[in-house]
Amino acid sequence: RLFSLRADPSQIYYLEITVSNLKEILSNFDPPKLLRNDLDFHRTIARGSKNVYMQKQHEIILEKVLYIAQTLIRFGEDSIPGYHDMAHYEDTYKEHERILEAVKSRDPDEAERAARASVQAGLRKTLQILAMQRQSV
């Protein structure tokens, strides 16, 4: 919401590049690069919101997300059910495109809806992967 209202054109352009890069990374299917791109996308939005409190909270959340991702990777990519699920990453791309379009049209309501949907979908997928990992241990 705040990014769609406060971001300057260069920040929106950078977000466009991030989404474009995601499409390219998908074509080569590189999960670690996909994770870095996803983090870059979300950090760009947090910084562009120009809300210091939100930026700090976002970094705390990202630290936890990175910890979970690195823990899963430590188990070995091949032992993580769902880690190579291309459909999940394609969904992420579509979600980021939706957020970007809302931001470009400066529609804070749609930007918020799209961002909430993306976060909820990512959380569901992560919990599914963790549940499958636990079952396989």
Summary of the model, kept short:
By secondary structure, the chain is an all-alpha fold. The chain is built from six helices and no strands.
Number of helices: 6
SSE run: HHHHHH
The amount of helix comes to over 70%
Beginning-to-end CA distance, first to last residue: 40 Å
Q: Overall pLDDT, averaged?
A: 86
Describe the structure.
The chain is mainly alpha-helical. It has six helices and no strands. It has helices spanning 2-6, 9-28, 31-48, 52-75, 86-104, 108-136. It is globular and about 45 Å long.
Write the layout of secondary structure elements.
Elements: H1 2-6, H2 9-28, H3 31-48, H4 52-75, H5 86-104, H6 108-136
Helix pairs in contact: 2-3, 2-5, 3-4, 5-6
Task: Provide the descriptors you would attach to this structure in a database record.
137 residues, mainly alpha, globular
